[in-house]
Structures are given as C-alpha cells and as structure tokens.
Predict the 3D structure of the following.
Amino acid sequence: MIEFVNLHKSFGQQRVLNGINLTIPHGQITAIIGQSGSGKSVLIKHLVALIRPDSGQVLVDGAELGQLHGKALDLVREKFGVLFQGGALFDSMTLFDNVAFPLREKTRLAEAEIAKRAIQRLEAVGLADMGHKYPAELSGGMKKRAALARALVQDPAIILFDEPTTGLDPILLNSIHRLILDAHKRFGFTAVVVSHEIPEIFDIAQTVALLHDGVIVECGSPEVIMTSANPVVRQFITGGGHGPIRPGPGSRSSSP
Amino acid sequence: MTSPLEAVGRVALAQVQGMGRMTIFLGSACFWACLPPLKLRRIVRQIHFIGVKSVSVILLTALFTGMVLGLQGYYTLRKFGSEALLGTAVALSLIRELGPVMAALMVTARAGSATAAEIGIMRITEQIDALTAMAVNPMKYLVVPRVIAGVIAVPLLTAIFDVVGIYGGYLVGVKLLGISSGTYFSEMRNAVEMSDINGGFLKSLSFGIIVTWVCTYKGYYTGHGAEGVVKSTTEAVVLSSVLVLVWDYFMTSLLF
C-alpha cells in the first residue's frame, strides 16, 4: 500500500504540494486528476524518490522513503515500473533493447530468457514486430506502448503512469486505456495513473483523487467523484469556465 | 535595489557553489568507479567513441602541427645557426606541451561536446529519471565509463599525436628544407629524456579526467529544453578547453 502523509513540496517561492494526504489501495487502478501544472507529476515522482518532500511522509509498503538511501531505496524502486510522460525511451537503443534494459541491468538472467521476456512484453502491447526500430522511428502512441512494455518487463508490483495519453487522438487514447486495463487484469499490479482525460479515465480507474491547490480535494470511486457536490470537482468534471478554478496551468482557486 | 557589491558577491557565491558541485560530482564519479561491478563492455564502447573515432582528427591536426613547428622552428633556429636542433625543438614542444594539450582540445571538440549534448538530451527527455526510477545509478551508468575511457584514450591519442607530429616536422625539416635525417633524429634522441615523456603522459592523463569530468557534468546538470542543451554543450567545450590550458600551466611549473 502507498500512503502520502501531510506531504509538502515547494520549488522556490512556488508552493506545489500543500499537505497531501492520500492512500492508494493495493491492486487497484487509482487515477490522480487535476489541472495541468497542479502538481500531479510532482506527486508521483515522490514515489520513486525522484523528488524529495520538504516535509511529510511517503510510505510504500510501510517503508518511509525519506529515511531510505542507497541499496534500501533501490529495493523500493525495484517494486515500481514507471511510464514517463514522454515515454523516456533510451533513444540510442532499439525498442527491444529498451525493453530488455531493466532485465540486463538488474537481473542475472541469461540473454535467451531476457529476449523471451522482452518479446513477450512487446507482444502484449502489440509491438512484436517493431523490436528492431529506434524510438525516433515510432509514432507517439507506439512510444507510449513501448514504454509500457518496458515498465511491465520486470513484473513490478506498482506501475506509475504519468499522463500516458497526453497528446494522443481519441482512438489511440482509448487503445492505451484498454492496454492499461488488460495489463492490469493480466499482471495484477497496483496502478497510479496521472491524467486529465475526463471522462475517459473513469472507465479504467477504481479510485479517483482530484488534486487542486496542492491538496486532494476529493477521493473516491468514479461514481463518487461524478456525483460530488464539491464545486471544484463539479467544475473540473464539467470543464465549466465559471467556478472556483481559474483557467491556466498551475492556477489557484479564486475562493479564499 | 541591489548594490553593485551585492551583485558581485552573489556572482562570486554562485561560482563557488558551482565549483563545489563540480568537485562533489568528480568525487562521486571516483567513488562509483571504485565500486564493482564495472561493466567492461560499456567502458570499451566509450573508449571506441572517445578514442578510436578521434584518431582521424588527431592524425590530421598532429601532422600539420608538426609541419608548422618544423617550418617555424627552422626559420627561428637558422637565425642562430642552430638548424641542427630542429628535431629537438619539435620533439620537446610536442612531447611536453603541444601533444597533450592539442589532443585534449581535439577530444573536447569532437567527443566532449557530443558527450555533453547526449547526456543533456537524456536529462531533458527524462531518460536519466528513467534510469533512477529503475534503480540504475546514472552516475555509474553514464559518467564512470566515460571518465575511465577518457583516462585511457587521451594518453593513447597523445602518444599518436606526438609520433605523427614528429613525423610532420621531419617532412618539413628533412624532406622540404634539407636538414639531414640523421641530425634530425640524433639531436632529438640526445635531448629528449624519459622525464619529458612521463611529464607529457601525466598531463594527458589529467586532461582525460578534466575533459570527461566537465563534459559529463555539464550534460548531467543541463537546463530546460533545446536551449539548455545548447548552453550546456557550449559551456562544456569552453570550460574544458580553459581548464586544460590553465591546468597545463600548473603541471608544467611542477613537472619541468
């Protein structure tokens, strides 16, 4: 289980997270939604200690990440697979090498076994015949799928998806969502998906948390979020121009 | 309003902070270089990139540097009736100074800039974050092999530079200007001592560290976007070149 306890993070004068309290249930898909620039990516980067909090705690299976360094931290990181916003595929490697990379670096498996697993994961995301291509030769959707294959290759317990569908057309968006759902059913990992794809994200998430003004303003099942009376949630879901949320990245609530 | 004194102080503090960060970066690289496992294949790949791929540019610049030395040396020595010392002048200039310095500058221009740009692009496209998230130490994966490769490749390239440069001087002095071949080489053999060669070797060894250290550092801490990569690449080349020349002065005053 993952827990954020009173998490605060600022960059210079800009306060991004202002006391996050959130529990991510084990084995479920949890979506973190919110405006662009509201700190969703910052929040999930705390989970693999890419960013350290100013105060508060991040707990992964009871281990507080702030207390961990070196090997102990690596052991926690190995529980995670991360699909970054831009894919973050290594552009000097083919897709096959990208997917095989974590196995080559972190395991002592034989090359034949590594190849078998990498091909299996590429097949799972529909890129079986693309293994020889370089990331630069692929479309945006293919890159996201390849990044998903890499995130899956070590069978991690938790996968973080940082805006996996940003910039994709509606058909590709649905295909990526289906892929996440299928992979989740097949491998049974805990998923944390950062997204602002409303209402599509409600089709795959079992828990949804809305991040606004540096705090979680509402957390619950998609039904709870969709029927919420909270004006921030209502405005975000309907996309209305009037309400407590001011348009623009990283904007703050107009209410005091 | 900021006083000029405050502005100067701020710049000075930033410089000191920058130097401190660079020193810690080098210390960290040395620390990780001492810890196993070191992946030999990755080091060999970097030796190929820094060393083998620089051979052609080293051959060309060494030949013409030697030829210019031969020409200028001949005209200068002729004024004192000492043309016979041309071989000595060419060899000592190359072995003590020009070989190590020019080889380091050529490696900076060809491989150092590429290294800074490559690591910089990895930074801005979250590839370094991806390594960290996979519990792969980016310092050990990206920096250590390059620094070790620099320490091995730059002295070897310097040796090639020295030999080809001496041959360039021979072409001009003996073949073009008519000094006897025996005079050219026998005077050289009498004057050049093992301490000269050792000094040049020590210089090239330290230049190998300087170039790879500065270029990996600048790439590793690159700013945002394409502009950030351009800036870090330029700074890498300028700073490595300046440091090579400044360090050369101190090494010369200590060694010879």
In short: The CA atoms of residues 127 and 146 of chain A lie 7 Å apart. Residues 1-79+205-256 of chain A form a domain with the Rossmann fold fold (CATH 3.40.50.300). Chain A touches chain B at residues 45, 48-50, 73-75, 77-78, 80, 82, 84-86, 88-92, 101-102, 105-106 (CB under 8 Å).
